[in-house]
Structure formats: structure tokens, C-alpha cells
């Protein structure tokens, strides 16, 4: 369903249009299969705060933030949402909202401050407390082990993900988590957005740990964009596979849990119907997603990558290939944007090609006319197209949508119609995807709170709850989207009636301007 005219700002237009959409597209929680999960997501460095408290040491993200985030924005996660101290209240909010699950991550350097070696008892205590609070409220913990925050000690010791040594340390860290928390945690994700980690951190160099040699954006002090992205992915795949092997051998029978990996996924739409662009779109998907999924499903990298990357692409021994192949119980995907893809054969003539040049495509964001540039376009059909393509290539393995959400400016308004519209469209479209045979098991909104964003710091906001950073209590203030999601999750009524209720209450919300409103 096209709803691009929505993009025009705010309440008046939105009230009218939302009603139209909802009449045509009413659904309730009850239309979903009973075991389908709805949740919300965060990650450790983005919400916990207490960065220097109770024995936690720095991660590569702390270092990146304190060095000025590559000049992209201000801020750091020293305090963030202070969930470290407010987790009980936050779990209460989740419970009231009706979340089935909360996706969060464990800070490796809080649990094992030096990355390897002794466990920090206060770190252990914190995650036990949080997990107990969730399970006592009937909320499933879905836990990520590494969300952009490798311990700085391992970066210093041997270059972190660039070195094979990370495989052993990651496996030992995962072992601690399985042993200590696995009686209550049944869904583990080893790495968040592994593909963006390799590209952003080691090719373009604009994300932690900021290594690169040929970035158009940064002069990194270390790195090699021609080789390191491939090494890093190779080590992530092996670290994942090693952790999964350990789990299956030591814990699976008793704990009955599942281990997944997370990728940022995009829909790739050929810019034209020429065969060059159609092939280029397939190649872009191979480079972004097949890079991980081919090894997980088939035990080797995609043919397009072997061809364009050549000897810089590491290879798996047959023992390693067998360990990586089949090591995925589910795939977690984060979905926001899609791209038009144009073939770019010229980039293959460059000397010292980096990952981007190897891909040999030109990407342009897929836009929807009428959507303001601040907003993420609502394009669920591109997600469905992508998921059918993955199903055709790799089979119908289980998928969790780990992140999906709309961006607004942090201090704009509690009356976040654009987010309500976005969630309504994506959640509604999930019903079609399930009816069309896709094996989607759950949906997590990014984000539960306005967190410290990787891109955008405290200026960008995705949260269901707003936090005024100048309020010393960091009170969580519900946005309209949290009211909408809560109504939906509690199955109070049909969607069109929910919309009317929101309309009544939205005037109430929009008359409560936030401090620091920019527009
Ligand atoms: C949810 O809503 C549907 C449709 O209105 C209704 O049939 C169903 O009984 C409701 N379920 C619960 C658990 O309230
Ligand atoms: C990187 O360094 C080169 C050479 O010193 C300089 O010309 C260029 O402006 C720098 N680029 C950035 C983004 O700082
Ligand atoms: C990157 O590594 C490759 C292969 O070892 C080497 O040929 C190239 O010179 C390196 N590039 C930089 C910028 O160090
Ligand atoms: C390509 O072909 C498809 C199917 O025939 C059509 O829907 C689409 O609009 C075409 N795209 C372009 C850019 O011409
Ligand atoms: C979007 O806008 C552009 C420029 O205004 C126009 O050329 C194009 O046809 C529009 N596309 C759609 C799908 O309306
Ligand atoms: C509007 O919000 C108030 C306060 O949260 C609540 O008591 C009331 O039931 C809401 N009205 C509707 C129609 O949902
Ligand atoms: C509100 O946010 C905008 C966009 O980030 C920013 O330019 C403006 O300075 C902020 N206003 C205040 C008072 O914080």
C-alpha cells in the first residue's frame, strides 16, 4: 500500500490520512500466530550508562565516542539512559506496554573487563538482576553478545576482530554467558550487524574502531580497507561458529536455546531493467548479505565475491567450512532502508581496491516521493521482496526482525505520528508476509527508549519513550507511538478504533510541547 502523501508533516494531515489507512487495513494482535513475538530493542552502550562504574572497562565504542565520534556528532554513552540503575522501572514499563520480549546486549567489558581473564562479579550481578526482572514479568530476554562494543583491551592487545585470536576469547566470553544466564535466556545473537561492523569499521572507517586506508571520509591512523573488512568478517563467522559448536555440545540439551547472527539488510532494486543492473543488484546482495549467509548455509563465500576479491578473500579449511555451515539457528535482521543499484564496472579497474570498489555498484537510497529527507521512507514491499529472495536462495530458515523503526529529531515532539504510521504499516505488512509463507518469528521495534545512537548520537531519536537529557531524573516520557504499540499489544480493540482513541489523546499530547523544541 502506497502512503507516500503522509510524509507531509504533522498532526492535521496525519489524522485524516491515518484514519483512511486504518479503515482499509485494520488488524489486531490476535491476527498473528499465537507464538509470534513482539518486542523492543536496545543495546548495552546505548542505554546502560554507568560506563566507569562497578568495574566496567572501556569498549572500542567508548573510545570512538570519547575521541569525538569521528566528528559526526557530539556525545557518549557514559550516562546514556542510565538503565544500569533504572532497569527495574524500565522492565515495569515494558510489562505495562505488553512486550513479549526485550532485546538487549551484554557489555563484554562489563562482564569480563579485559576481554579475557577474570569475570567482574558486579557485571554478573547486573545481568542476573535484569534477566530475573524480565523473566519474573514474563518477558523473554533476547540477548546479543557483541553490539559494536568489543573490549578496548582486546583491540589494544591484538587488534580485536582483525586477529584470529578473537575467536578463542569470544568463545570463552560466550561460554560464561551460556553457563551463567542460559537457564533463562533461550535466544542468543552472537554479533549485531556483522556486515556493517566490517564495512563501517574497517573499510570506510567511520565507525568503531575506525580502521581504514582508503576512506573518502576519514584518514584513519591504522587499517587496510583492501584486506581487513574480509578478515574481520571471516573471524566473526568463525567466532560465531565456534560459540555455536560449544553451545550445542555443552548446553543445548539442557537449555534448549537457539543461536543466531544479525545483519543490517537492505532491499536492492535494479536502477534500470538492463541485465547489467539486474546482475549488479544480485552482486550487491551477495556482498552485503551473501558474505555471511553463503558461509552459514553453504560453507563458502559467494562466487561473485571470490571472483572480484580474489586472493584477498580468506578461505575456510574444510574443517572450518563444516563448522560454519549449519551454525545458524535463526537470522536476526535490522531493516530500515533500500537502495537502487547501478552497475559500476569502472571501479574494478582501480588499484588497491577496497571492499566498496570490489562490489562494483553505485547505490542510491530508495526514496518515496513526498517523504521528507529526515524521515525513513515506509517501504515494506522492499523488505518482503528481499525476504522472498533470501528464501529462494538459502531456504526458509527462521527470521527475527530485530530492528525496524522511524527516525525523528530527538527534541521534536511526543506526538510522533510518523513513527505510528511507520509501525502500523510494517506490522500490518508482516501479516501479508506470514500469509505468503515467510518464516518470520518475531518483530522488535528499534528502540524502546531514545538511546545514544551509533549514527546521530543524541540528536537522532527512534524511541517509544523520550528522555529529556537535561532532566536529572531522566524520566521516561511516553510518545504517541508507545500508546499505539501498547494498545496493539494488549489487543484492546480493532485498529481503526485505536486510531480514533489516539486522535482524541493526541491533541492532549501535542499540547504538551517538549522543552527545546526546534521547529
Ligand atoms: C483480540 O481481538 C480480537 C478481534 O477483536 C478478538 O476476537 C479476540 O478475542 C481478542 N483477544 C483477546 C485475547 O482479547
Ligand atoms: C586526509 O589527508 C590528506 C593528506 O594529508 C588530506 O589532503 C585530506 O584532506 C585528509 N582528509 C580528511 C577527510 O581529513
Ligand atoms: C593492504 O594489504 C595488501 C595485502 O597485504 C597490501 O598489498 C597493501 O599494500 C596494503 N595496503 C595498505 C594501504 O597498507
Ligand atoms: C522493470 O521491469 C519490471 C517488470 O517488468 C517493471 O515493473 C519495472 O517498472 C521496470 N523497471 C524499470 C526501472 O524500468
Ligand atoms: C517522483 O518525483 C519525481 C520528480 O518530482 C518524478 O519525476 C517522478 O515521476 C515521481 N515518481 C513517482 C513514483 O511519483
Ligand atoms: C487518554 O489518555 C488518558 C490518560 O492517559 C486516559 O485515561 C484515557 O483513557 C485516554 N483516552 C482514550 C480515549 O484512550
Ligand atoms: C533540538 O534538536 C535540533 C536538531 O538536532 C538541534 O539543532 C537543536 O539545537 C536542538 N535544540 C535544543 C535546544 O537542544
UniProtKB/TrEMBL annotation:
Group of enzyme by EC: hydrolase
EC number: 3.2.1.21
One example GO MF annotation: beta-glucosidase activity
Alphabetized InterPro entries for the sequence: GH, GH_1_N_CS, Glyco_hydro_1
GO biological process: carbohydrate metabolic process
Signal peptide: 1-26
Family of this protein: Belongs to the glycosyl hydrolase 1 family.
Protein name: Glycoside hydrolase family 1 protein
Source organism (scientific name): Medicago truncatula (Barrel medic)
Amino acid at each position: 500500500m502506497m502512503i507516500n502523501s503522509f510524509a507531509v508533516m504533522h498532526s492535521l494531515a496525519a489524522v485524516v490520512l491515518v484514519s483512511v489507512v486504518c479503515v482499509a487495513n485494520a488488524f489486531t494482535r490476535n491476527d498473528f500466530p499465537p507464538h509470534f513475538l513482539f518486542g523492543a530493542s536496545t543495546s548495552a552502550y546505548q542505554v546502560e550508562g554507568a560506563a566507569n562504574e562497578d568495574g566496567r572497562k572501556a569498549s572500542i565504542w567508548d573510545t570512538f565516542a570519547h575521541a569525538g565520534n569521528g566528528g559526526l556528532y557530539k556525545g557518549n554513552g557514559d550516562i546514556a539512559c542510565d538503565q544500569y540503575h533504572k532497569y527495574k522501572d524500565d522492565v515495569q514499563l515494558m510489562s505495562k506496554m505488553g512486550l513479549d520480549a526485550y532485546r538487549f546486549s551484554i557489555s563484554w567489558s562489563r562482564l569480563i573487563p579485559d576481554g579475557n581473564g577474570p569475570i567482574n562479579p558486579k557485571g554478573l550481578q547486573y545481568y542476573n538482576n535484569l534477566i530475573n526482572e524480565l523473566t519474573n514479568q514474563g518477558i523473554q530476554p533476547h540477548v546479543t553478545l557483541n553490539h559494536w562494543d568489543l573490549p578496548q583491551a582486546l583491540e589494544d592487545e591484538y587488534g580485536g576482530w582483525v586477529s584470529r585470536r578473537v575467536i578463542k576469547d569470544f568463545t570463552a566470553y560466550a561460554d560464561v554467558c551460556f553457563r551463567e544466564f542460559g537457564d533463562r535466556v533461550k535466544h542468543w545473537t552472537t554479533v549485531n550487524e556483522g556486515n556493517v561492523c566490517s564495512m563501517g569499521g574497517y573499510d570506510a572507517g567511520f565507525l568503531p574502531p575506525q580502521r581504514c586506508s582508503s576512506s573518502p571520509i576519514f584518514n584513519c591512523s591504522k587499517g587496510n580497507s583492501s584486506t581487513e573488512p574480509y578478515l574481520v568478517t571471516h573471524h566473526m563467522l568463525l567466532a560465531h561458529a565456534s560459540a555455536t559448536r560449544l553451545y550445542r555440545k555443552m548446553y543445548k540439551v539442557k537449555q534448549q536455546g537457539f543461536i543466531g547472527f544479525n545483519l543490517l539488510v537492505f532491499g536492492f532494486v535494479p536502477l534500470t531493467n538492463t541485465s547489467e543492473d539486474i546482475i549488479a543488484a544480485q552482486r550487491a546482495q551477495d556482498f552485503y548479505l551473501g558474505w555471511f549467509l553463503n558461509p552459514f548455509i553453504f560453507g563458502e563465500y559467494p562466487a561473485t565475491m571470490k571472483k572480484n576479491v580474489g586472493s584477498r578473500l580468506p578461505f575456510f579449511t574444510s574443517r572450518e567450512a563444516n563448522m560454519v555451515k549449519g551454525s545458524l539457528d535463526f537470522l536476526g535482521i535490522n531493516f530500515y532502508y533500500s537502495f537502487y543499484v547501478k552497475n559500476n564496472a569502472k571501479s574494478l579497474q582501480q588499484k588497491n581496491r577496497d571492499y566498496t570498489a570490489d562490489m562494483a555498484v553505485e547505490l542510491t537510497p530508495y526514496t518515496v516521493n513526498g517523504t521528507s529527507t529526515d524521515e525513513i521512507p515506509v517501504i515494506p514491499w522492499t523488505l518482503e521482496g528481499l525476504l522472498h529472495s533470501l528464501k529462494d536462495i538459502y531456504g526458509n530458515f527462521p527470521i527475527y526482525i530485530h530492528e525496524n523503526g522511524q527516525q525523528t529529531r530527538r527534541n521534536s515532539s511526543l506526538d510522533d505520528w510518523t513513527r505510528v504510521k511507520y509501525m502500523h504499516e510494517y506490522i500490518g505488512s508482516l501479516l501479508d508476509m506470514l500469509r505468503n509463507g515467510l518464516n518470520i518469528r518475531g518483530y522488535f521495534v528499534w528502540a524502546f527508549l531514545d538511546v545514544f545512537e551509533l549514527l546521530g548520537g543524541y540528536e537522532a531519536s527512534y524511541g517509544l519513550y523520550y528522555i529529556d537529557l537535561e532532566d536529572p531524573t531522566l524520566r521516561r516520557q511516553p510518545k504517541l507511538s508507545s500508546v499505539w504499540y501498547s494498545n496493539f499489544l494488549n489487543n484492546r480493540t480493532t485498529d481503526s478504533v485505536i486510531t480514533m482513541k489516539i486522535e482524541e489523546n493526541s491533541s492532549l499530547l501535542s499540547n504538551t510541547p517538549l522543552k527545546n523544541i526546534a521547529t
